[in-house]
Amino acid sequence: MDIINKEILNAIQKGFPLVRSPFAKLGRKFDLSEAETLARIKDLKGEGVLRQINAIFDSRKLGFVSTLVAVKLAQHKLDKAGLIISSHPGVSHNYTRNHSYNLWFTITLPAETKLEETVKALAEQAQAKNYLLLPALRTFKIGVMLDMVNGSKPDRKSLPKRKSDKGMIMAVKDRELIAALEEDLPLVPRPYQELAKRSAMSETGLLAGAKKLLDQGAMRRFAGVLNHRQAGFTFNAMAAWRVPKTRLKRVGELMASFSAVTHCYQRPTFPDWPYNIFTMVHGRNQEECTSVVSAIAEATQIKDYRLLYSIKEYKKVRVKYARMM
Fold this sequence. Notes:
Blueprint: H1 3-14, H2 22-29, H3 34-46, E1 50-57, E2 64-72, H4 78-86, E3 91-97, E4 101-110, H5 115-125, E5 130-134, E6 138-142, H6 175-182, H7 191-198, H8 203-216, E7 219-226, E8 235-241, H9 248-256, E9 261-266, E10 277-283, H10 286-300, E11 305-316, H11 321-324
Antiparallel strand pairs: 1-7, 2-4, 2-5, 3-4, 3-11, 6-9, 8-10, 8-11, 9-10
């Protein structure tokens, strides 16, 4: 992959232009024509590096609830349990990890749904020994940005100010807009016009609605999403940290400032799981991940942590919110 393609991928992960001719606008940034920009992105999609380009929503602001769940299973029951849990439409990510809590999944449901009862039923079907509900109590950082040029390095950057996490139930009339923006962007010169046609909306209306959702914070960004492994980031490490309560806010902000950290949350603790801050790091190899985690431990002076790597992926999809509204 040449440097221009890497820079294009970096740029569209941060945000894809919400204008009538986005490929032309993106191309000008790299002195490329609209046609060449489109051709490059089509190639990246065909090679499997670029998964899709679409809206990335804030589930809470759409009126949804979600949680990370850790499940303890007998080893011989893992694969069957993985299939059972992955069959639920609200489950978006489901992995085995190297711990006695060996199956980890995320589930998102409408706020009126009984989340705890749903998880309990799934755990019973999977014949779990035990399970932990680990919802985000505080979000310090969320947003996968894989640096295609420099890889994962233990450097730090200032964080942009986060918008309020308070929920905002979307009006019924916005379902059509959300459904349109969730779809993978067509790779044509006027992609929003194509999306609008499919949804019986105008191109102007769709773009205006998208910008409004962005301003409200209901849409975190409209951006490209990469296939981690095809992009060269074959390792992901979930580091769970035991941080003193008096230092939670400061340490969380410090951990989130590391550019290689894609997610950083405060989560609840349990007698057999005392870790209250979670960070996700993606790397091109295990050494990149451990280097970042070691730098975080050094910077924060938090030495009590567990480093969990994904061993097997059962499911990884984007949540389709409109279908559940």
